[in-house]
């Protein structure tokens, strides 16, 4: 083959290839397919398991017209989103919403909420009937003005027994009446009492309790932290300033009801606990193959989350600890697990409670815009996605805790002994204090008091059990075209 002919053929192939990219990137989808087009292109670019979904393959569609033909088969955007996910036993946490304002609020702790943060468990011997119990009451909420408190049990709503098939619709109501019950030797018995609740727009400060407990020579800081909401990072720093000013010798971090949130906040919290590791790797991100390859070749440091000594221009208040006690339950997820796993290469982490959720992957909010960020969002709709885009590992490269992190000391919460949170007699905190001081004994659990976990308030809609980064890496879009 003559050189000039080979060059012409090569030029034709390059132009044809570029034209295909231009057709997909620069040709607008018809208005009735705008949402579907956004879903496909966002997942094609960022979805962690993109390579495992044939319909998300980079060469699946030769042109925008071909893609449009495929998208027309999914008139309901949510159906397309779910069809493009891998098996839900692998991807348990990707979400799509039709109003990103709701999503943005939830990720910062603002929800339509009556203030009862509850757990749902199966009734003894049943796989269909469930009941709930109040774990804590959010200050300033409607529930805070009513006769309901930690440990209150409810079996039904508006007179209807809660089941695995009706709980979502019943708990989604704006106003409802909780039908209360008593606990008696493993049996849940309706007691005829009830409490009427109404949801309001509620912003939850995740720092529920921050105190110091003096026991002998130990000054034990106790921090109950219920959500990694970046808007409260300065408040969290102030809480650590208080602990530092009181010269705490030990720290009990209560994450038992913390279902996660911001990776950045988790990094800052870990930096407040330590302080001696600034600039070292707290966690490392693993994206899908094409994004990971770009980062590794062009900016490998972008894959690392480093311990820090600043929040913006504000110095972080660090305790410089070498050992920490962390309380967990089945509800401890994502960023909570990240803190536990990320600290382990650097310090002694004593986990007390139950096995955690097992969420070792993170998400990002994608909008229908040229960069999938907040600027120049499509004004025709408010759809946004929260797909899983990365797996996260610690400095040692460990991140395989899909089935949860196993506690050092296993001690499940039980309904027969739900003491007041923060009391030194509360079982999980009492156990931690005993281990710190060397004076405690392991509490014996009664099997009749244990019920199988089903759900909790923050996992019901999936919006508050995310581990997320602040925004998608926009700079790589053009590079990957």
Please give a structural write-up:
This protein is 26% helix and 26% strand. With 481 residues, it is α+β, with helices and mostly antiparallel strands. It has three domains: 3-90, no CATH class; 112-203, PDZ domain (Pdz3 Domain, Roll), CATH 2.30.42.10; 207-443 and 461-480, Alpha-Beta Complex (2-enoyl-CoA Hydratase, Chain A, domain 1), CATH 3.90.226. The radius of gyration is 25 Å and the shape is globular.
Low-confidence parts, pLDDT < 50 over ≥5 residues?
Answer: 1-23
CATH superfamily of the largest domain: 2-enoyl-CoA Hydratase, Chain A, domain 1
Distance linking N and C termini: 31 Å
| CATH architecture level-2 label of the largest domain | Alpha-Beta Complex
The computed structural class is alpha+beta
CATH classification class of the largest domain: Alpha Beta
- Helical content stands at 25-40%
What does the main sheet amount to? 7 strands, antiparallel
Total strands = 26
Care to give the gist of this entry?
The chain is of the alpha+beta class. 26% of the residues lie in helices and 26% in strands.
How would you summarize the topology of this molecule?
Blueprint: H1 3-26, H2 34-46, H3 64-71, H4 77-83, E1 95-97, H5 100-107, E2 110-113, E3 116-122, E4 130-137, E5 153-157, E6 160-161, H6 167-171, E7 175-184, E8 187-198, E9 200-203, E10 207-215, E11 218-225, H7 233-245, E12 250-254, E13 261-262, H8 263-273, E14 281-286, H9 289-298, E15 304-306, E16 310-311, E17 314-315, E18 323-328, H10 335-343, E19 348-353, E20 361-363, E21 366-367, E22 384-386, E23 388-393, E24 409-410, H11 427-437, E25 453-456, E26 467-468, H12 476-480
Parallel strand pairs: 11-12, 12-18, 13-26, 18-19, 19-24
Antiparallel strand pairs: 1-22, 2-9, 3-4, 3-25, 4-5, 5-6, 5-7, 7-8, 10-11, 14-15, 14-23, 16-17, 20-23, 21-22
Helix pairs in contact: 7-8, 8-10
């Amino acid at each position: 083959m003559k050189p000039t002919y080979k060059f012409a053929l090569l030029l034709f192939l390059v132009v044809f290839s570029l034209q295909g990219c231009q057709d997909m990137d620069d040709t607008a989808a018809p208005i009735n397919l705008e949402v579907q087009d956004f879903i496909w292109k966002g997942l094609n670019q960022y979805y962690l398991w993109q390579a495992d979904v044939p319909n998300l393959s980079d060469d699946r569609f030769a042109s925008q017209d071909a893609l449009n033909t495929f998208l027309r088969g999914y008139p309901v955007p949510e159906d397309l989103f779910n069809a493009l996910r891998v098996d839900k036993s692998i991807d348990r946490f990707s979400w799509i919403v039709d109003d990103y304002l709701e999503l943005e609020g939830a990720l910062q702790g603002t929800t339509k909420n009556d203030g009862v943060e509850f757990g749902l468990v199966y009734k003894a011997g049943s796989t269909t009937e469930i009941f709930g119990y109040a774990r804590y009451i959010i200050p300033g909420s409607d529930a805070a003005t009513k006769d309901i408190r930690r440990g209150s049990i409810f079996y039904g709503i508006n007179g209807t027994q809660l089941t695995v098939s009706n709980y979502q619709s019943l708990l989604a109501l704006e106003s409802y009446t909780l039908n209360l019950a008593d606990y008696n030797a493993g049996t849940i018995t309706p007691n005829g009492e009830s409490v009427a609740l109404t949801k309001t727009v509620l912003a939850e400060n995740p720092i529920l309790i921050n105190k110091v407990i003096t026991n002998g020579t130990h000054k034990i800081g106790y921090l109950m932290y219920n959500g990694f909401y970046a808007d409260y990072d300065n408040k969290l720093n102030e809480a650590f300033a208080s602990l530092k000013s009181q010269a705490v010798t030990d720290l009990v971090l209560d994450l038992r009801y913390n279902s996660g949130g911001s990776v950045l906040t988790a990094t800052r919290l870990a930096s407040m606990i330590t302080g001696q590791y600034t600039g070292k790797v707290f966690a490392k991100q693993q994206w899908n193959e094409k994004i990971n390859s770009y980062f590794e070749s062009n900016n490998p440091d972008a894959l690392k989350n480093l311990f820090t000594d600043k929040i913006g221009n504000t110095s972080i208040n660090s305790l410089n600890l070498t050992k920490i006690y962390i309380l967990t339950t089945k509800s401890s997820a994502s960023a909570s697990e990240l803190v536990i796993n990320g600290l382990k290469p650097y310090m002694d982490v004593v986990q007390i409670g139950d096995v955690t959720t097992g969420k070792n992957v993170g998400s990002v909010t994608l909008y229908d815009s040229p960069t999938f960020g907040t600027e120049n969002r499509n004004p025709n709709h408010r759809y946004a996605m929260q797909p899983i885009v990365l797996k996260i590992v610690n400095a040692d490269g460990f991140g395989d805790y899909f089935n949860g992190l196993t506690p050092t000391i296993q001690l499940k919460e039980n309904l027969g002994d739900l003491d007041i949170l923060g009391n030194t007699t509360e079982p999980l905190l009492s156990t931690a204090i005993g281990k710190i001081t060397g004076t405690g004994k392991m509490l014996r659990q009664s099997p009749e008091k244990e019920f199988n976990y089903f759900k909790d308030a923050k996992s019901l809609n999936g919006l508050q059990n995310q581990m997320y980064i602040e925004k998608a890496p926009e700079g790589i879009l053009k590079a990957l075209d």
